[in-house]
TrEMBL record:
Pathway: Amino-acid biosynthesis; L-histidine biosynthesis; L-histidine from 5-phospho-alpha-D-ribose 1-diphosphate: step 5/9. It comes from the Bacteria. The active site is at 87 (nucleophile), 197, 199. NCBIfam families: IMP_synth_hisH. This is Imidazole glycerol phosphate synthase subunit HisH. It comes from Streptomyces mexicanus. SUPFAM superfamilies: Class I glutamine amidotransferase-like. Keywords: Amino-acid biosynthesis, Cytoplasm, Glutamine amidotransferase, Histidine biosynthesis, Hydrolase, Lyase. Its main location: cytoplasm. One of its GO terms (cellular component) is cytoplasm. It holds the Pfam family GATase. Its EC number is 4.3.2.10, 3.5.1.2. IGPS catalyzes the conversion of PRFAR and glutamine to IGP, AICAR and glutamate. The HisH subunit catalyzes the hydrolysis of glutamine to glutamate and ammonia as part of the synthesis of IGP and AICAR. The resulting ammonia molecule is channeled to the active site of HisF. GO terms for biological process: L-histidine biosynthetic process.
Amino acid sequence: MELMSTPKKVVVFDYGFGNVRSAERALARTGAEVEITRDFDAAMNADGLLVPGVGAFAACMRGLKQARGDWIIDRRLSGGRPVMGICVGMQILFARGIEHGEEAEGLDEWPGTVAPLEADVVPHMGWNTVEAPADSELFAGLDADARFYFVHSYAVHDWNMETHNPAMHAPKVTWATHGKPFVAAVENGVLWATQFHPEKSGDAGAQLLNNWIGTL
């Protein structure tokens, strides 16, 4: 008799700045057990923590700190517990953001500045392809021409993080282009993030979320 595997428990962190319901539905389709909450213990103990984000960088950071999300993310990463950020939930993982002339500090997990897109048409709204590393786990099983849904006016255009320790693996960075190339996704140990919305990206987004759940 084949034993049924226990569903992975995922918390969608609810700090007031994310499309939590659409993320919940998309994750539930992977077979995960999903809870929307800002409860400290639930967020700390879940197999995976998903941090969405919609709105301005500074406002999201304030909301995250008020919910102790910054501390939760730091502690989870220190303990090797997976975290995934989406859209502004990815942007706040960088060192700083500049929006509407206001500069705010991010979580500084990665160096870099979130700045206005350099393109003729802003916001970048709609479907776009990405250029993922050949050994990407996040995009495993997806065709090179797979499209993902973006809605944003800001992004990180330069990646300056390097590792000189041969025992450490350099982060895997995926790029997209809207005017100028920008960071579309990052895989860095147990910390993954996407600028696009996998929960709005149809079958390609579903495959990507399945890939993440499969690592938990």
